[in-house]
Predict the 3D structure of the following.
Amino acid sequence: MLRLYTLPVPCSLLPMNNVNCQNPQLIDWWRNAIIYQVYPRSFYDSNGDGIGDIPGIIAHLDYITALGVDAIWLCPLFESPMDDFGYDVTDMYTIDPDFGTLEDFDQLLADAHNLGLKVIIDQVWNHTSDQHPWFLESRQSRDNPKADWYVWADPQADGSPPNNWLSVFLGKSAWVWAPQREQFYFYDFLEFQPKLNLHNPQVVDAIFKCATFWLERGVDGFRLDAVNFLIHDPKLQDNPPRPEDASPPDGILSANPLAKQLFHNQICDAQNYQLLQQIRQHVDCYEAITLGEVTLSEDAIAISSDYVTGSERLHLVYNSALFFQNPFSATQMRQTLERIEHHFSSGGNCWIAGNHDYRRLKSRWTGKDAQGNPYPEEFYHAIAAMLLSLPGAFCLYQGDELGLTDAEIPEDIPAQQMQDSFGQALYPDIPGRDASRTPMPWQADAANAGFTEAKQPWLPIPEEHIPYAVDRQHKDSNSLLNTWRRLLHWRKQQPALIQGETKILQTEEPILAFIRDGEQQRLLCLFNWSDVPTHYDLSDYPDIKAVADSGFTADRQGDTLKLPAYGVFFGEII
């Protein structure tokens, strides 16, 4: 077992009747938290079955601790047929045997807390597996105790589905005929994920009982999957057509049938906010937090900000703000930051640049320099510095700190060799999500890069990932991994980055500039997003002093600062 990492880390509906919520002690560690996302299936396999597991996470908590993050977010660990790798739950109270036992989870929770790490777990409240006992009972008849626990509807007069709602994954009707009831059931994503009817108070109560189970075990919060999909229009009205001059939602290609509709009735229903208030009230009783995912919405930044407005909705939310196209530019980033500052004026934003559902950070911005070459490694070091100096929280997806790229999925691979059901359903037009879910490479010279002792891991480890293995980067002080470590620990020592307001400066390409302004520190943050050196006038800040230990250097001559290609400067304004 690889045990290398010993760097110190500063520790930094109505509620259920059995919960005493009179004076919950609210905490705000989350506002600027760095959250490390763990995809358990691909983190580390402890028992040689080719699948990562909870003991594997425990075995490498020292690695996570050494990074300098505040919390870990665990993707679903619950019992599941794994048709969507845990996002199709059959028992919300049970750890799936692929990952271990409830005792393993308790040990992970205890060990993480002893190391000063918070633990956030995924909660999938929009749907279940079609093998969940709730659904099996609901499907039997129209008058059983759980008949109304899912979204059921009669066909139209001609036998067609009840309305024009589409699966946001598949682009076809989101209704499946169930002969047992002679009705259709609704699903948002994949056919084996029937949607829970959260208009039914019994369903909400059941969800909250599950939440209480994990909160009382000591988890520090929930990541809420597809939170803008929780509540649908109870009248099941058609989605209206999208105006011809309107852009499709983030993540939807214009050729996708979804691009022809506005999702005004299928998702983002106004009643969502009432449910969010009940969720917030419940978790506040346990001093826990909520991190919501807002996805495939008409205006991801504006809509997601509504989910954290005030102190009665979610604590944090992430969106597709950084999912803009290549090449990366200072102008585009400045405009994005301006929109975030406008809509998230009271906080609550959590940045992401890649995760298990999207492209990896390094594959998101591949870019081209002036000579037509891909971005050099220096670019990704600068990206790390920028992401850790932005206001709000940030989710770092496992492997992005290593600079892993999306795996290349061969165009001629048989669909049955793909693991992702989304990719299988849309093969060969869409490669699916296998590319960003490949296992962590721990040891460059070990079989399967040290991830597993099995002959084959559940997904192959790309050859191009081997040079980026943890053991090689650990020994290289200039590696991207050590840049992330250095910056994460350095960030904790900069009061302006933890609590400071943000003032965005108007600069021309290729410079991005902003000031993080706090009571104890004012910090000028400068970034050169070009492959040639550039200059910045510091005459407005005559007494500015470069902040030590960030790992970045720039040449200053009087009031002129020379930033190298993809250079970074952090200066304390006196």
Remarks:
- DSSP finds 14 helices and 21 strands in the chain.
- The longest helix spans residues 201-217.
- The longest strand covers residues 511-517.
- The mean pLDDT is 91.
